[in-house]
Amino acid sequence: MGKGRTSAVLGQKLSVASTSKSASLSVPSGPVYYPTEDEFKDPLEYICKIRAEAERYGICKIVPPKSWKPPFALDLGSFTFPTKTQAIHQLQARSAACDSKTFELEYSRFLKEHVGTKLNKKVFFEGEELDLCKLFNAAKRFGGYDKVVKEKKWGEVFRFVRSNRKISDCARHVLCQLYYKHLYDYEKYYNKLNKEVTKGCKRGLDGDVKSEDKVERSSSKRRRRNNCDQERVKVCHKVDKEDELDQICEQCKSGLHGEVMLLCDRCNKGWHVYCLSPPLKHVPRGNWYCLECLNSDKDSFGFVPGKRYTVESFRRVADRAKKKRFRSGSASRVQMEKKFWEIVEGAAGNVEVMYGSDLDTSIYGSGFPRVCDHRPESVDANVWNEYCNSPWNLNNLPKLKGSILRMVHHNITGVMVPWLYLGMLFSAFCWHFEDHCFYSMNYHHWGDPKCWYSVPGSEAGAFEKVMRSSLPDLFDAQPDLLFQLVTMLNPSVLVENGVPVYSVLQEPGNFVITFPRSYHAGFNFGLNCAEAVNFAPADWLPHGGFGADLYQQYHKAAVLSHEELLCVVAKVSDLDSKVSPYLKRELLRVYTKERMWRERLWRKGIIKSTPMGPRKCPEYVGTEEDPTCIICRQYLYLSAVACRCRPAAFVCLE
Question: In this entry, which stretches build a coiled coil (predicted)?
Fold first, then answer.
């Protein structure tokens, strides 16, 4: 890697404030690299050189040679952009979007069937009706009644129930008593049911083939309801066709296979257990409610569209916000991070900011020069052309030689086409990893620094486990929460639980690289402009396979077909020697999986088959011709299962 590489900052540690039990924890810095002019010629080659060291951190910063000075291509005087409003105080410290009517229905059934009483009067606290649904979920967030009592967390629980209010010591004691009286027995019942569901899921996952057959043979329950003296099971008997198709699955729109159809105990809509996201292996005990009934639109959380700004008007808003938070208008990195995490954890009042995020550069323009763009008179023609063709220009990166994505010929925004970001103080990007587990490259054009946190891809499982245990109510309401990009968790909580976290401070002219399956998050120190895109060198291929399986598990629409990408790359005559070993292993994995599922279908009697239709451009990846599975929503490139009764509907082999 030569004398251009440095890891001088690897030993530095940053103190991150937390309102949790430990006051602060150290977050080590990620690696920083300074490539020489020669090393900087080929970004994919250079990233390959540093990967062995940098991937262990999940992130790294690259500081280009001093000669790298690309002109900013957008006209700041005429450029306008839309924003999103981010409620920073709700990124972590927010109640689950629970529907109080569904909770009341389930709680009433519990009282009637397990306690022998009715919910016939409202519960009041400090002169106002107490929302038992919010109280239950708030206590769940902090580990349940016993843990809340032990750690004296009733003040934090109260903040979730009634935000922006103070609570006295006496009122905390009263809240504790009310919870014990009305919800403690329900909490024990709820936890017992959840443990049984978890055990059932683990058993189902252990024996994949057996568990599938088990679902079809033994789960002849459409839904279960608890009766006063015994549990009653509704069985879907095989009757005439009209009755059999009486209930339609909301996902696949089929009324067949009623024996594995779950009915919501509130709205009576149905879903096959395998059509749920993620799918269930077993019919759950007790009452079951769909996500539509569990979640309340009123309390749902997301980033809502904000105003449209010019850069100058956005600058004024950003400056005012910074002076309001820090009177001098400037603060140290430690002060900014401490304040940000205080806000995120709900300890510093309500804070809303604007973020011009995910701006499609094919619509709004790129900060890098492009051949199709008008060259400003102030920029020399030779300089403009040089940076138009630079491999470090994010518009060129996905299509470089050695990039697997060069076979993709349709413009996927954020993947093949960069996204532009205009931030202000505390505007944030929440914990996530990239689509299809791609690499990402982010370039800081101008403005205040951007603070990044990263968890290495090898620790993704540990990260997810801590997220679920720290925010159980949010994950119960939204099992796919980490796909939503709207949730933060203080790095100190992750470090406390043994998950390694690293930090990088990105300044103007710096590149930041995130590695496959590396969870990352961060926020801005003030007004700035950055640009990002995905890329995929050869070593990404196995991670791409993992990402495709994850989309299938959660029934999320994929960006592209992983199988098609593999097959198209395999046909390339001038294949890079670095690609071949990764491609061979991934093709073998996909072939083995495809063969296994085809053989299982043959054994079950599906023996008629015809070739998939020929493609117009087989040498390129394009999804417009591919049907998608009506259940898992994945592109069907290698094979699809169809039936004469619904000729327009297809499913994958699974």
Answer: none
CB 474 within 8 A of CB 140: no
Q: Please give the mean pLDDT across all residues of the chain.
A: 85
Cβ distance 47 to 539 under 8 Å? Answer: no
| Percentage helix, strand, coil for the chain under 3-state DSSP, each rounded to 5 | 40, 20, 45
Tens of pLDDT, residues 197-217: 555 444 433 444 344 444 333
3-state secondary structure of 641: strand
Residue 89 has pLDDT above 70, yes or no: yes
* Structural domains present in the chain: 57-93+301-537 (2.60.120.650), 100-191 (1.10.150.60), 258-295 (3.30.40.10), 559-651 (no CATH)
In angstroms, the CA 462 to CA 507 distance is 30
> What does the pLDDT look like over 295-307, one tens digit per residue?
765 555 678 888 9
> Which positions ≥6 away from 349 have C-beta within 8 Å?
89, 164, 343
d(CA 572, CA 163): 59
Give yes or no for a contact between 33 and 50, defined as CB atoms under 8 angstroms apart. yes
Tokens representing 416? 């093949």
- Percentage of the chain beyond pLDDT 70 is 86
3-class secondary-structure state, position 80: strand
Q: Are 481 and 9 in contact (CB under 8 A)?
A: no
**Predicted TM-score (pTM) above 0.70:** yes
